[in-house]
Amino acid sequence: MSRSVLVTGGNRGIGRAIAEAFVAQGDQVAATTRSGGAPEGALDVRCDVTDAAQVDAVFTQVEEAHGPVEVLVANAGITADTLLLRMSTDDWSSVLDTNLTGSFHLAKRATKGMLRQRRGRLIFVSSVVGLLGSAGQANYAASKAGLVGLARSLARELGSRSITANVVAPGFVETDMTDVLSEEQRAAIKAQVPLGRYATPQEVAGAVTWLAGEGAAYVTGAVIPVDGGLGMGH
């Protein structure tokens, strides 16, 4: 049965692969972008997730086109990496505002429709960094760790209405962001990963579509790692 799915940050990398996976399943998919470029078959909607008014407007647009959002994938995120003593307040605030507060805006708006339907799936894309920490990424790690607390609180708050809230925590993934690394950097990273390679965006998308599917109806408050074993035990 085709569902109304909203994926944020759906123009490239992990977000694009997630949107494409839902389109391939026959769902009605909307993908937010800042400058366009949603996958073929998805409704392209422009949104800055840090702006609650823009988030509200996007949901209204998607609801008119596809009906109430049944699956939300909060994927949009940014980085501003630097060591703590060099990190500006703006470096901190911009990353937290996009990655964590943006997800709050999305979840709050999505939940309105889900509560009326008495069903829904909230899926937050975090990172292995949110569990392990990473030098030079205090802002990013804090924002991604915050998603775990957000999801687990919503799992408890909304479970009685058959709304699940889960987290996918990717490790190192083959994307534009990792393509810029040198061969030495890439080799050092792979040496830390038990499976000895990067993930593909499609492998992350597989975990997301599973959480949104019938087989995960009794899964909520979970953190699903897609990291090749890098963060095991966390």
Structure write-up:
This protein has 234 residues and is an alpha/beta fold. The protein has a single domain (4-224), classed as Rossmann fold (3-Layer(aba) Sandwich), CATH 3.40.50.720. Helices cover 46% and strands 15% of the residues. The chain is built from 8 helices and 7 strands. It has helices at residues 13-24, 52-66, 89-117, 129-132, 138-158, 176-179, 183-192, 201-212, and strands at 4-7, 28-33, 43-46, 71-74, 120-125, 163-170, 223-226. It has a 7-stranded parallel beta sheet with strand order 3-2-1-4-5-6-7, with helices on both faces. Helix 3 links the parallel strand 4 and strand 5 (120-125). Helix 1 (13-24) packs across helix 8 and helix 2 (52-66) runs parallel beside helix 3 (89-117). The longest helix has 29 residues, at 89-117.
What Rg, in angstroms, do the CA atoms define?
A: 17 Å
Strand arrangement in the largest pleated sheet: 3-2-1-4-5-6-7
| Helicity, as a percent range | 40-55%
- What's the architecture in CATH terms? 3-Layer(aba) Sandwich
Shape: globular
Helices and strands, in order, run as EHEEHEHEHHEHHHE
User: What is the CATH class designation?
Assistant: Alpha Beta
CATH superfamily: NAD(P)-binding Rossmann-like Domain
Number of strands: 7
Largest sheet: 7 strands, parallel
CATH topology: Rossmann fold
Number of helices, counting only DSSP H or I runs of 4 residues or more = 8
Unreliably modeled segments = none
Compute the number of structural domains: 1
Mean pLDDT: 95
Determine the N-to-C terminus distance.
35 Å
Give the percentage of residues in beta strands: 15-25%
Class from helix and strand fractions? alpha/beta
